[in-house]
Amino acid sequence: MKNSEIKKAVTKGDIVLIFSIVLICAFWFLSGFIGEKQLTVRVFHNGEAVSEVLLEGLDEEKTVTVGGCEIHITNEGAYFHSSSCPDSLCVKRGLMKRAGDVMACVPNRVTVEISGADTEYDGIAY
Amino acid sequence: MKDKSKFKKAFTASVILLVVISAVLFVSDYKERFEMTEKNIIAMGTVVSEKIYSKENAGKHIDAIGKIINGLEDKISWRKEGSAVATLNSEGKTSDAAVAHALEAIKEVSSKSEGAFDVTIGEITRLWSIGEEGERIPTEEEIKDALNKVDYTSVKVDGTIITLPEGVQIDLGAIGKGYACDLVKEYLEITDAEGAVVSVGGSILAHGRYNKAGDKWKIAVRHPRNENEFLGIVSIDEGFVSTSGDYERYFEKDGKRYHHIIDANTGYPAQTPLISVTVICDSGILSDALSTACFIIGEEKSKELLGAFDAKAIFVYEDMTVSAWGEIDFEKQ
Fold it and tell me: What was the ipTM of the complex prediction?
């Protein structure tokens, strides 16, 4: 088929249709990437947010001190460095680094969570 | 004629394309998750993670669930002065519908596990105090004395009235989180929430659905020897998932691990080749009780017990061998 024949076969309507389809597909594809995707550590005390740290590009360790707990945040994740609580279970927990992870110092009512990236699960049984 | 034929072809192709795109968009909408709100709170001495699929009232549900769990803790915690269980332990008698229900619900687990699972173990758990200040290995004499007061058949429940013989101490710690999941489910059933996953300290309720397709919930099971890894993913339609393991609360002395799951027949941490048991069933209180009981009595004896409650389980051994009982959609990682 020659170029001139193709031009004749394709109407303006076809072009509008194809353009619309491409637009819809692009929007649908991109919409999957919109939203929070970067790993973020959030620290709460008594249910109130006290700190929010984006892990990507975090060059040096950040320390959050709240409610008798000292939380260290690196570009890998977060951990309770020390706590005034009697059992120190929170400190024994070590580094958490996955999206969806939560750890807490229950006696001091401090919660640390990682959010951002999609997870493959809805909950963790332990 | 030629133009007409070309037009027909172009028209047909356009229609087919439109149908395909509509189908793709329809399926994508069908699989897309509903609007979800999540929050982690501290209740019942643990982390409660709530994921609520509700368009308008998620915040309200999150707050209500926190209150439900705190309300239950006020009744069943032996540590809380004035709670129904604290009163029962100190006075030998109390009236409380929630505690009476719990005791009735788990009686059969105690009898079918031949007393290995027993909530009258309170004095023994206090002797060990594992994971708390003052944790220690009690003397044989102390264990022997305390064992005399362990007997689930001595608990009498008449309606909401519960009586205990003198010295018998109830500890509902093994079923409290699962019980909370049951109450959360009762609440969610009368709300507009399409679905929810609520974890009360690792005991899981998966309720309703998260998309129009009704795809299964995916529940990760913690690796018993590496907190930052999963053993695998269990896929379930709805229900409860509970895990008991020797890793959650323990101390080590002279190279030996003393974990918090006490065999009520011996008064010592359960001696078993298992390091973790995960139970899936349609009751939170039972999934909690069964995971503890199965951990104590081992895989072989557990089969009859699980069968009696239509429950399924995943057993993990020290050498990381994994064995499943019942039809479980489990993907090992």
Answer: 0.89
